[in-house]
Amino acid sequence: MITNKKITRFSLLSSLLLTPLLSHASIPTHGDFTAKQACDAFQSFRKQSNPQSVQLSVGQRYEITAINKEAFDWVQIKVPGSSPLTRWVKSSCGESNFLGQSKPTTKPSTPNNNKGNGSCSTAGNFDSYVLALTWQPGFCEHFSYKGKKPECDAINSGKLASTNLTLHGLWPNKKSCGTNYGYCDDSNKLDLSRSTINKIAPWMPNFYYQTKFGEYEWRKHGTCQTQSADQYFMTAVDLVKQVDASEIGQYIKENIGRNIKADQFKQVLVDRMGKEAVNRIRLSCTKGKYLNEVRINLPEPLDMTASLVSQMEKAPRTKSFYGNCKKIIHIEAAGK
């Protein structure tokens, strides 16, 4: 027979055991959070649950209600119109300003910089990005893709026009891992909305025909960051658009079908963008001559409200602007 006394003891014991668990969950605080990226706003960041698929509006200010105590890498905010009203967002998605005594004393956790499979395959444990952009005519004309790139078949046959830089990938990068940071969650399968596919296909043309390349990029790189698949690819495409419209894309498009001097290309960019930004650019050429890719280092966190140049200046430097390209570079035109 269960007595009231036993129930009281059980309730007291349960509360004592539960209190430490709750106390480590979050710290109530007050302030405002200004969104720098259109990140997902989760009901539970541990479960990655997001009823209504709520995302932040870049530039909008939100009221802060709490932070997670363990690491201060998540912030709880109020998102008007959402249900529930309070949501968790990655602290790196924006700027937090805390009021008076409510400013938290918890410091962000120190990343595990030890080399090894665990350290180099943990989502969110990175310190910069590499944005890899393809010059499709140069890639498709001279790279041995062995019939596995339907977009290249279409470009080479003249069925698909290609006059802009396209997305190879947006790669989270961790310095201590070299090129081995990736494959953070094999269970996180790519699931893009039709709307997203339609928007990114002109900038990642493999999506016109299949999703294999996108699935590979997501599995290797996308699973290592914290945005949803839709937002990750939209962020990447927004960055590609910025580069394509910048002095980088302009100079390439001004010289389609021509040979250019690598030194002259670099000097033009230095004159227009500044030396510090150009120190974050690396070229890639097939056979050392045909431009196929431009890689740009970007910082973590990304600030989609900032200019491209200011973002580049905050990122780690590349080893060489020229990459594997020789002194004379050819900017290939589409079609054989």
UniProtKB/TrEMBL annotation:
Keywords: Hydrolase. It comes from the Bacteria. GO terms for molecular function: hydrolase activity; ribonuclease T2 activity; RNA binding. Gene3D superfamilies: Ribonuclease T2-like (3.90.730.10). Its EC number is 3.1.27.6. GO terms for biological process: RNA catabolic process. Pfam families: Ribonuclease_T2 (PF00445). InterPro entries: RNase_T2-like, RNase_T2-like_sf, RNase_T2_His_AS_1, RNase_T2_His_AS_2. It comes from Photobacterium damselae. Belongs to the RNase T2 family. PANTHER family: RIBONUCLEASE T2. This is Ribonuclease I.
